[in-house]
Design a protein that fits this description.
The chain is of the alpha+beta class. The protein has one domain: Trefoil (Acidic Fibroblast Growth Factor, subunit A) (Trefoil). The protein is built from two helices and twelve strands, in the order ααββββββββββββ.
């Protein structure tokens, strides 16, 4: 009887080892990304379920996602320090920036300048596969105030906290 238990135990160990060493399937491996790939995206706030929009007035707000609104389309460009990107608004050609230092400071858009660290963002994966966008200059995350809902709420920065989904962003590919 002990011989049979040893054989079954050994066989189960080999099967388990094979499962652990087997490579992930291509579709599974592609679905787990530590950073959004370069391309064009709508950035959808998880709490508000609205798109980040860059206005010609340099303001950054959320608004209902509308396919034909190019101010809601952002070009993700790898940039600066490893793991950082620059987010260029397709409508204005300007980059998402964080000019202030304090919690609640409003995001803005400015001409894209390589040496401006407030235009560098580190996408950090969250437990629900969205991203937090941590600003390189301030170390704080892009958020949208939850004090009220509706269109026109400004993009702000706040101390990064994983359990605040007003800091979570979906990168929705735009064709």
């Amino acid at each position: 009887m002990q011989s049979l238990i040893r054989k079954v135990s050994g066989l189960l160990s080999l099967i388990l080892l094979g499962i652990m060493l087997a490579p992930a399937s291509p579709s599974h491996a592609a679905s787990i990304s530590l950073s959004p790939t370069p391309g064009t995206y709508n950035l959808i706030n998880d709490w508000h379920n609205r798109c980040l929009a860059g206005r010609v007035t340099r303001s950054v707000v959320i608004f209902d996602c509308i396919d034909s609104y190019t101010d809601q389309v952002w070009q993700v460009e790898p940039f600066g320090a490893a793991g950082h990107v620059r987010l260029r608004n397709v409508h204005t050609g300007q980059c998402l920036a964080m000019p202030g230092w304090d919690n609640g400071s409003k995001a803005a858009m400015y001409d894209c300048i390589d040496s401006y660290y407030d235009q560098w963002w580190a996408p950090e994966i969250t437990p629900n596969s969205t991203y937090r966008l941590r600003n390189y200059k301030t170390g704080k995350c892009l958020a949208v105030s939850t004090t009220s809902t509706g269109n026109g709420r400004p993009g702000i920065q706040y101390t990064c906290t994983l359990n605040f989904n007003d800091q979570w962003w979906h990168f929705w590919p735009v064709a």
